[in-house]
Amino acid sequence: MKRLKLIGLAVIATHILLFSVENLSAQQYKIGPEDVLKISFWQDPALNQVVSVRQDGKITLSVIGEVTAAGLTPQELATKIGDQVSRYNKQISQATVEVLQYNSQKVFITGHVLSPGKYAFEEMPNVWELIKEAGGVTEQGDLSNVVIIRGSVNKGEIVNVNLANLIAEGDPSRYPELYPEDIVEVKRASSASGPGLPSKAAATERKNIVYVIGRVGAPGTITLEENMDCLDAIALAGGPTPDADLGKVKIFNKQDPYSNVIIVDIEKRSEKGTPPRYTLRPEDTILIPTDEGGFWGTWGRVRDFVGIFGTVVSTYLLIDRFSE
Q1: How far apart are CA 120 and CA 112, in angstroms?
Q2: Nearest of 75, 97, 93 to residue 85 by alpha carbon
């Protein structure tokens, strides 16, 4: 009888273990576009490669060519690669896949945090975890006025969060979760929030910036100059990257509580002079998305134009500042 009980316990323990392993497997990271992977073959290190996942979800390996990686866990992809490589080289039966950069799960944070910019995660954080990752809020930051602009799930939705109250309640499960491509902005505290805030003049001076995020050479904050438009800001932020979609540039205007979104087709404007020029306003956020269509010829012409234009703008601003 005692032996039967032991056997029964062993069976139950085995089921629990298998269930835990299955759950762990289900929670493993799924590879996505823009991730950077290291593919290793311990049986032949000469074949090792570091590759980026393209927008179509595929990678290219020297031995077997194109392989679909998006949607697979690193272990699933390693098994798939090992099986295909072994058909060409019987000496190789295994591969390993390591994710070096989790770029498919990126979010952006702007506003009054110490280190605004792009952040990528293996596991998506909640809004408070992202703010802490960005160094926390500045002295002017207002945790009671945090805005989330959804970039993938419920795309375009604007969520206003009183994070100060949620933190005070002490229930982390209520902190809003983030999804890939979300934009988080920490607003400036009003003068009524208490002592220690800058003077009105200083606050106005600090507000005179715009944020440029997404597919540019140097994302971050740009000092807002008089009559600056979207093209000026992109040029000063290092110009567009090769995979930038200049036909769908988004400008998030923060001057009112509804956060207007303006879509600017810079490709069309550089060729035809339309749509009309939009003059940036303080604390506008410019998002340059990734080109999923691959119009390289058009991008090349616009990229050259923006690069030359950026040099002209930079020179003009330097001359203007020295002349003051």
Answers
A1: 19
A2: 93
What pLDDT, on the 0 to 100 scale, is given for residue 135?
86
Q: Do residues 97 and 75 lie in contact, with contact meaning Cβ atoms separated by under 8 Å? A: yes
Domain boundaries 208-324, corresponding CATH code:
3.10.560.10
Q: 3-state class of 5 per DSSP?
A: helix
| Triad 253, 254, 257: Cα angle to 5° | 120
Residue 324 is predicted with a pLDDT of 54
- Counting every residue written for the chain, the total comes to 324
Is the entire prediction scored with pTM above 0.70?
Answer: no
Tokens of 313: 């703008």
**CATH 3.10.560.10 domain span(s) along the chain:** 105-198, 208-324
User: According to the model, what pLDDT value does residue 259 have?
Assistant: 56
Count H helices, E strands: the chain? 8, 15
The pLDDT, as a whole number, for residue 297 is 43
Q: Where in the chain is the domain with CATH 3.30.1950.10?
A: 36-101
Q: What is the pLDDT of residue 220?
A: 72
Name the CA radius of gyration of the chain, rounded.
Answer: 25
Close Cβ partners of 283 (under 8 Å, ≥ 6 residues apart): 111, 207, 209, 210, 211, 254, 255
What is the CATH superfamily name and number for domain 105-198? Outer membrane lipoprotein wza domain like (3.10.560.10)
C-alpha 197/C-alpha 48 separation (Å) is 54
Low-confidence ranges of the chain (pLDDT < 70): 1-27, 191-207, 254-259, 269-270, 272-275, 292-324
Q: What is the pLDDT of residue 224?
A: 85
In this structure, which CATH number among 1.10.1040.20, 3.30.479.10, 3.30.1950.10, 3.40.50.720 belongs to the domain 36-101?
Answer: 3.30.1950.10
| Sequence-ordered strand ranges (E) for the chain | 36-40, 49-52, 58-61, 65-68, 96-101, 106-111, 117-120, 141-149, 158-161, 183-188, 209-214, 220-223, 249-253, 260-264, 285-288
